[in-house]
Design goal:
- This protein has about 300 residues and is an alpha/beta fold.
- The chain contains 7 helices and 14 strands.
- α1 runs parallel beside α3.
- The protein is globular, with a radius of gyration of 19 Å.
């Protein structure tokens, strides 16, 4: 492992997007980047699908073997507010990262320029404005009717002053071999944009931090039912949602599995921390899962990383 910068000033953004509105969500993200930059943040992390939103509870009219036209109208609205990469929204975010002199991680619904397929995507922006793209390998459950399986951009990583940074989106972190593929790249910062506010997730992220002996950055959303546009075509579906649709729970776990910052619930917040990056190599003294504890003579992982 190369020498690491001793500390990383991080801002974890637990916030709500402006739902179904990519322009307003991008504007809000830029304002939050600027706010975090005022606090000297060097790494700024947003949740999954911050642009244009994670549409919890919506079926888009799908049932097994059937669909309806009202659902198609809502899907087309979501499609129209998804982001082409690169495109106008990513240009603005790249400029905001450059002005902040910070790395930025943000989740978007990506719309392909060549096809009609959407992808659940996480973007890294460097302080120079460069973009690194990671598409979600496997949409979970009913997500499969909205976003496609990644066909490229599986395990990209960024070489930062604090070591290698990569991301797994939400339940990708439950894919054991995907985690190993990321660990094998030398990961020190594990970025997890997600929409997981269940208590079991907290046990998961502590385990992964210990398993990878890396910092686990858990960035979740907070949003409420009244934030959905009132002219969507699925009022009965939305009526069934709780008032607080996603409670958050964003936090940071250190390489020993301890809370660097405690989970924040039921509100928007920016969580700041100064990470001691020397904990990462120190934690690997007795366990280095991709190094002296790997047993490559017995165990091998073959990754088709296009």
């Amino acid at each position: 492992m190369k020498d690491l910068k001793d500390t990383c000033r991080i801002a974890v953004i637990q916030a709500a997007p402006v739902m179904f509105d990519k322009a307003a969500s991008t504007e809000k993200a830029i304002k939050l980047i600027q706010e975090a930059a005022q606090e000297k943040a060097e790494l700024i992390v947003f949740p999954e699908l911050f642009i244009p939103c994670y549409p919890v509870g919506m079926s888009f009219g799908f049932s097994v073997g059937k669909r309806n036209e009202d659902g198609r109208k809502d899907w087309k609205r979501y499609y129209d507010n998804s982001v082409v990469v690169p495109g106008p929204e990513t240009d603005m975010l790249a400029q905001a990262a450059k002005e902040a002199k910070a790395w930025v991680s943000i989740g978007v619904s990506e719309r392909m320029e060549e096809t009609g397929t959407l992808y659940n995507t996480n973007l890294f922006f460097s302080p120079e404005g460069e973009i690194i793209v990671h598409k979600k390998l496997k949409p979970t459950g009913s997500e499969r009717v909205v976003w496609g399986d990644a066909q490229k951009d599986y395990f990209p990583v960024a070489d930062t002053p604090w070591g290698i940074m990569g991301s797994m989106i939400c339940w990708e972190s439950y894919m054991p071999l995907a985690r190993v593929a990321l660990y094998n790249k030398g990961l020190t910062l594990y970025i997890s944009p997600n929409t997981n506010d269940n208590p079991e997730w907290q046990a998961t992220i502590q385990h992964i931090a210990i398993e990878g002996h890396c910092y686990f950055i858990n960035c979740d959303m907070y949003f409420t039912k009244d934030m959905y546009p009132d002219d969507l075509h699925c009022p009965d579906e939305l009526a069934k949602l709780p008032d607080i649709v996603c409670r958050g729970g964003s936090c940071i776990i250190d390489p020993y599995g301890h809370y660097e910052t405690e989970p924040v619930w039921d509100k928007e917040a920016i969580i700041y921390a100064d990470l001691d990056m020397q904990k990462v190599p120190a934690s690997r003294m007795e366990f280095d899962g991709s190094g002296h504890y790997a047993r490559p003579d017995v165990l091998k992982l073959i990754v088709d990383d296009k």
